[in-house]
Amino acid sequence: MLGLGAAGVAVGASVQDRVARTLAPVGPIGDVLPAAGGFRYYSVTAGVKRHSVETHHVAVTGLVGKPRSFSMADLAGFPQMTLDKDFQCVTGWRVPDVRWVGVALPDLLDAVGVSAQAKAVRFTSFDGVYTESLTLEQARRRDVLVATQMDGKPVTHDHGGPTRLYVAPMYGYKSLKWLGGIELTDKVKPGYWEDLGYDVDAWVGRSNGRDDEPT
């Protein structure tokens, strides 16, 4: 889910206007789920092509020792991390206690061998437009997942499946939908919404991400 707005992140009204203009031609691809605080569905592009579980891959490239493309079966072969965490949209709405299951991003990075020159990780969506980035330190947190399940079911297309990024300690716009590529880079490359003025670091409710970090 892509959450956008001003609550909790200091951005100006002009940024909000640009976001509204960006989303307006696309519109929601769904609606609020029938529960208070339910998800809202948005996309920055229209008509995102669906990927099947049988053919979908996540490519890990860039400053790594062994570039590799991981199928859903490959991802299922990793130790599975389960997180019961809220999903917090920067506009202020929140979905509490969502159960996320997937591969902890550090495990995936270890599998390809991160180069000493790598300082950041760039994520690309198979919608062809949406991108996001984390520092390497942030990406090595164990509450950052390549999520394949949500609330006991495979991640649906509208929620960004078959695979999506879930960055538990940050606002929803960092949790990129329709994850198709992971690239190790030598510096942080601002993502789609950062180019519109949003914070590169989007910690929920605090100025750093060291509180409540799982071990």
From TrEMBL:
Protein name (database record): Oxidoreductase
Native species: Actinomadura darangshiensis
InterPro entries for the chain: OxRdtase_Mopterin-bd_dom, OxRdtase_Mopterin-bd_sf
Oxidoreductase molybdopterin-binding domain boundaries: 48-193
PANTHER family xref list: PROTEIN-METHIONINE-SULFOXIDE REDUCTASE
One Pfam assignment: Oxidored_molyb
